[in-house]
Specification:
Rossmann fold
Length: 485
C-alpha cells in the first residue's frame, strides 16, 4: 500500500514544493527512510536505482534544518550543516538541482562544487554561506585546503552511491574529509548495490545504523526487460542500428568500457546519419554538461557514454539501454540498466556478448540471481547503404571468408591489390660467391706503394713560400746590419 507525502506532516514550504513537482505518493524507500531520518538515526539504505533515493534523504534533512533558517546576509549565520558527497560530477549537479527545488520556498541555501570547472564562482558561493553543500570528494578537498569552507558545524553527512564512494579510489579522500567533521553527526548511506565488504566497511562510519532494503540486494527493476545477444566485435555497430530500427527506439543510452571506443563509436554513428553524442571522462566538464542537457531535452537521440553516466542520472522516459561492452564490474551492469525503467516506467536493456565476456556474464548472473539466455542475432544488410545483400546468422564468430562480402556487409575499405613487380635478370639470378683470386674493382686502379712506405693515396704537402722569415735568419740579418753601422 502506497503512502502519501501528506502523511509525513512536513513543513508547509516543503509540502508546497513537493506538490509543485507533481509528487503525491512515496516510493517504498522514501516511505521507510524518511521517518527514520526524521528521528535523527543513521541509515544504510539499499533500493533499486530510479526509486527516489534523493528525496528519501533530502526532505527529512531539510525538515530538520528549518530551525536554522534565517534571512540574515551574514555568512556566519549560514554555516554548512549538511554535506552530500557523490562520486561523479553529473550526479552531483543533478542532486544539487533536486535539493534546490525542494528548498526553493525556504531560506536555506545550497550550492554544489565539483571538478572540471573554475573554482572562483564556487568560492564566491561558499563565501556567502550555505547550509547544504553538495560536492565531489576531490574538489571539496581543494576548497578545504584553500580555506574556502569550514565543516566544523556539519550535522548531517550523506554518501550517495555509497558503494562507489567507499571504493578504494575514493576511500583516502573520504577519510580525509571525515576527519574535518564533528564526531557527533548523522550519517546516511544510500546506494542501489551493497556488497558484504562495503557493509563491513560502512560499519566503521555509522553509529547503530538502521538498515533499509526495500528489495533484494542488487536486484534489477522488474519493469526492465533484459536481452542478451551474441554479436561479433566488428558487428556491434551494425547490430545496434538494426535493433534501433526493429525495436523502434527513438532515444537510448549506449555504454562502452573505454573512452576511446566511446569516441570512435559516436563518430561512426554520426557518419551513418544518427544523432549521437559522446560523454566520457576525457571531455571537458562544459562539454559533458552540454551533452547531457541536449540528451535531456531530446535534441540528441543516442548518448554514447562510459560508466561516468551509469550512476544516478535521472532522465525520464528513456526507453532503452544498450551495453555494447559488458561492464568489467557486475555492479555497474545494475546501475547501467537502471537508466531506463525509472519511476515505474517500462524499459528494455540490450547487451552484446562476445566470446571474451563469459566470466563477466557469469558474475552478472551471480549478482542479480538470474540465469541469462544469450540469443543469436540475425544480421541483415543495411538496405540504404549496401543494396540488400543476403542476411546471415551471427553466432559471435566469423563464418564467412569472402573479402568482398565482408566489404559489403561491414562497409570496410576495399583492400588494394598491387600489380606484380617486373622481373629483373640481375636481381632474380641466384647468388654466386666471387672467385678466390678476384680483387675488388677499386683495387684495380691502385697505384704502387711509394718507396718511403706511404700509401699512394696520401698526397705530399705542397711547398708554399714563407711569408715571414725564420727567427734565426732575422736575428742574423739584424746583427750584420748593426756591425756595418
Amino acid at each position: 500500500m502506497t503512502q502519501a507525502f501528506s502523511e509525513l506532516s512536513l513543513a508547509e514550504p516543503l509540502a508546497r514544493a513537493i506538490a509543485e513537482m507533481g509528487f503525491s505518493a512515496m516510493t517504498p524507500i522514501q516511505a521507510q527512510a524518511i521517518p527514520v531520518v526524521l528521528q535523527g538515526r543513521d541509515v544504510m539504505g539499499a533500493a533499486q536505482t530510479g526509486t527516489g533515493k534523493t528525496a528519501a534523504f533530502s526532505l527529512p534533512l531539510l525538515q530538520r534544518m528549518l530551525k536554522h533558517e534565517n534571512a540574515s546576509t551574514s555568512p556566519a549565520r549560514h554555516p554548512v550543516r549538511a554535506l552530500v558527497l557523490l562520486p561523479t560530477r553529473e550526479l552531483a549537479d543533478q542532486v544539487a538541482q533536486q535539493i534546490a527545488l525542494y528548498a526553493k520556498h525556504t531560506q536555506l541555501r545550497s550550492t554544489v562544487v565539483f571538478g572540471g570547472m573554475d573554482m572562483k564562482p564556487q568560492t564566491l558561493e561558499l563565501k556567502k554561506g550555505v547550509e547544504i553543500l553538495v560536492a565531489t570528494p576531490g574538489r571539496l578537498l581543494d576548497h578545504i585546503e584553500a580555506k574556502n569552507c569550514v565543516l566544523n558545524q556539519v550535522e548531517y553527512v550523506v554518501l550517495d552511491e555509497a558503494d562507489r564512494m567507499l571504493d578504494i579510489g575514493f576511500l583516502p579522500d573520504l577519510q580525509r574529509i571525515l576527519s574535518y567533521l564533528p564526531k557527533q553527526r548523522t550519517t546516511l548511506l544510500f546506494s542501489a548495490t551493497f556488497s558484504s565488504e562495503i557493509k563491513r566497511l560502512a560499519g566503521s562510519y555509522l553509529q547503530d545504523p538502521v538498515t533499509i532494503e526495500v528489495a533484494r540486494s542488487n536486484a534489477t527493476a522488474s519493469t526492465i526487460e533484459q536481452r542478451f545477444y551474441r554479436v561479433d566485435e566488428d558487428d556491434k555497430r551494425q547490430a545496434l542500428k538494426q535493433l534501433l530500427r526493429e525495436k523502434g527506439v527513438k532515444q537510448a543510452f549506449v555504454f562502452l568500457n573505454s573512452k576511446l571506443g566511446c569516441a570512435r563509436m559516436a563518430r561512426a554513428l554520426e557518419r551513418d546519419g544518427l544523432n549521437a553524442v559522446a560523454l566520457h571522462g576525457d571531455k571537458s566538464q562544459d562539454e559533458r554538461l552540454k551533452a547531457l542537457d541536449a540528451f535531456k531535452k531530446g535534441e540528441v537521440d543516442l548518448l554514447i557514454c562510459t560508466d561516468v553516466a551509469a550512476r544516478g542520472l535521472d532522465i525520464k522516459d528513456v526507453p532503452a539501454v544498450f551495453n555494447l561492452d559488458i561492464p568489467f564490474n557486475a555492479e555497474d551492469y545494475v546501475h547501467r540498466i537502471g537508466r531506463t525503467g525509472r519511476a515505474g516506467a517500462s524499459g528494455i536493456a540490450i547487451s552484446f556478448v562476445t566470446g571474451r565476456d563469459t566470466k563477466q556474464l557469469a558474475e552478472i548472473e551471480k549478482l542479480i540471481g538470474k540465469k541469462t539466455e544469450v540469443e543469436s542475432l540475425l544480421l541483415g544488410a543495411d538496405q540504404s547503404r549496401f543494396g540488400g545483400a543476403p542476411a546471415r546468422q551471427n553466432d559471435g564468430q566469423r563464418l564467412w571468408s569472402d573479402p568482398q562480402a565482408r566489404v559489403e556487409l561491414r562497409g570496410e575499405r576495399p583492400v588494394r591489390i598491387r600489380a606484380p613487380r617486373a622481373s629483373d635478370p640481375f636481381f632474380d639470378q641466384p647468388y654466386q660467391p666471387p672467385a678466390t683470386d678476384a680483387r675488388p674493382a677499386w683495387e684495380g686502379n691502385a697505384q704502387p706503394t711509394s718507396a718511403r712506405g706511404l700509401s699512394p693515396y696520401i698526397k705530399s704537402r705542397k711547398k708554399v713560400a714563407a711569408l715571414l722569415r725564420p727567427m734565426a735568419v732575422a736575428e742574423a740579418a739584424e746583427a750584420s746590419s748593426g756591425a756595418t753601422i
